[in-house]
Amino acid sequence: MNYVTTDLKELAEHVTFASKVEMDEKIYEYLARLQADEQPDSVIEVLRFFGRSSLRLLGVSFAKYQTIADSVGISKSTVIRAVKRLVEFGMIDKLPTVKKWRGKSRKKSVNVIRILPTLSNMITQDDNAIEDVESAPSKASGNEIISEPSNFNHTQKHVLDTTDTLKHAIPKKLYEVMSPFFNVEGLYETIGALYRAKATVDPTIQAENHPEYIEAFLSCVRRYKDGKVRNLLSYLYTTWRKVSRGIYLKRMADVY
């Protein structure tokens, strides 16, 4: 097995992103995928930690498991399981390292974690039948425009918790249409619903390139304001999933 040292100059060679905006956007996408797959909060929080701790060397984190555990508020063994799960999803990889000592001796050190710019091994959930839009499940209450779900409530600042960061992380077309309707938390959750809906059908679809997503969004908002929809988030999710299915089927028809 090849080891790298924890020397910053050497670690700089393993940087995986060209800019913080690019890294934030990818983390945001991965978080949406984890939510769609209903992964435990611990997995989501560990990925967030890697995002927060990868600012000096973009995409590269080298904290000890115990440090992560203390920061996130979970056990070391839970951190190890969360890291394993993120590796299985292909969102991160690990580089075993050694620490240089005086002379020629070396000692095994922490694992360097790299947030990958593309999924190396995507895990997808079963594609169940689309549910009726009025009965689709949701973690939101449905009595307000959008509220942040419980697994997004935490005391530490998230890499995507400001309007400016969201503006750069979300495709411009989607941001311009959706941002007037929501605050930061609401916009964050709504985009997450879009990515989750898309991921259940075909995560490679670029929503900003398909006006159907925007048309569906505006239609859903109108129905919500008219009192015809009780839970906007559920309605958006199910509608966007149907849109994704239509785009996917059309794509397959064009191929064959």
Automatic annotation (TrEMBL):
It holds the Pfam family HTH_36. InterPro entries: WH-like_DNA-bd_sf, WH_DNA-bd_sf. This is Helix-turn-helix domain-containing protein.
